[in-house]
Amino acid sequence: MGSTEDLDYPQVIVQYSSGFLVSKVMFTACELGVFDLLLESGEPLSSDSIASCLGTSITGMERLLEACVGLKLLTVEVTQEGALYRNTEISNIYLTKSSPKSQYHMMMYYSNTVYLCWQHLTEAVREGRNQYERTFGISSQDPFGAMYRSEEEMSKFMAGQNSVWSICGRDVLAAFDLSSFTQIYDLGGGGGALARECVSLYPNSTVTIYDLPKVVQVAKEQFISPEEHQITFHEGDFFNDSIPEAELYILSKILHDWDDDKCEQLLAKVYKACKPGGGVLLVESLLNEDKSGPLETQLYSMNMLVQTEGKERTAAEYSKLLEAAGFGVIQVKRTGKLYDAVLGRK
User: What DSSP element (H or E) covers 341?
Assistant: First the structure.
């Protein structure tokens, strides 16, 4: 039996321990506007030019650009005049603000909110509760009161969620044929990106976004135009207020925010309001049944510990919650992407 001295230092340990450094490089390049500048310039630029345009130090920008090249977010061409940088296709599509599939707002939410909460992950594990009080001095009893602690933060969160559905929305909505449902309520629909994808995919449908009054106000002002007639709004708190009758209810990334008791309470209200023959579509990131993965979902579940009252679940666990509320004929579809779909029928 060899000693531990015979073992090479595992590369995976290096990668995992430096993972937060990788994220911060990408977040910082986004926040400073590196990718936007290179897209707008239409030509490769030197580190000196980029630093001058963005008001940073030359030394700091040069190191940031080199790290982005290492992460394959930028490419570099060495000429007689020096190194010239340009975006990769991935950066143009996902990291520039102007792209229809931009993830910029989600990057900023992770950088300025999620990362701050994760500094207290050890305390979250010890205590089994979210860390808003330590991070922002806001009561941990109301996770969304903390997330929506100002109109600016609420708008950023909504924009971030919209960016997710711009690349994942169609996958979950097409997992099942929902064309028979024409009257749809999107509970906690926020900025309306999923509702927009829904009426695009199912043009005979109408979608009502049911959300808190302040969320609806921002959605109307910033995200959904009055000309989008197939999308309407209903102001309320679906835990405390009534839920109107509809054929289909969409709960996208809602149940993972809450413990089992709250989930059962909400699903029971949805079942009572649902028309006979109607249903509920859960959009969540599903754990394997033995909870061995996927890694992304396991990490999301850690984030639920740090930021909410909930957790990620297996398909069987969501099915159990649906059955307890009265729903039957439960179907599960894994999309192979970030989020999966579970459909229960009344």
Answer: strand 340-345
The helix/strand/coil state of 8 is: coil
Query: Residues 169, 175, 179, 183: is their CA dihedral positive or negative?
Result: negative
List pLDDT tens digits, range 90-142. Answer: 999 999 999 999 999 999 999 989 999 999 999 999 999 999 999 999 887 87
- List the single range of 121-125, 143-147, 200-204 with lowest mean pLDDT: 143-147
DSSP per residue over 134-201, as a string? HHHS--TT-HHHHHTSSHHHHHHHHHHHHHHHHHHHHHHHTSS--TT--EEEEET-TTSHHHHHHHHH
* Contact in structure between 81 and 49 (CB atoms under 8 Å): no
Q: Considering the entire predicted model, what is its pTM? A: 0.92
Question: In what helix (H) or strand (E) does residue 62 lie, and over which residues does it extend?
Answer: helix 58-70
Burial class (CB in 10 A: 0-12, 13-18, 19+), 264: middle
- How many whole angstroms separate alpha carbon 67 and alpha carbon 27? 12
- Contacts for 223 with CB less than 8 Å, ≥ 6 apart: 158, 159, 162, 191, 192, 193
Per DSSP, the residues of 32-43 read HTHHHHHHHHSS
| For residue 6, pLDDT beyond 60 | no
Which position among 105, 120, 234, 256 bears the catalytic label? Answer: 256
Structure tokens that stand for 193 in this block: 């990106």
What's the pLDDT at 9?
A: 61
User: Angle at CA 221, nearest 5°, toward 215 and 223?
Assistant: 80
Question: How far, in Å, CA of 140 to CA of 160, rounded?
Answer: 22
- 5 falls in which pLDDT band (50, 70, 90)? low
**How far apart are alpha carbons 313 and 310 in whole angstroms?**
9
Angular region, 123: left φ>0, alpha ψ -120 to 50, beta rest:
alpha
**229 an active-site residue?**
no
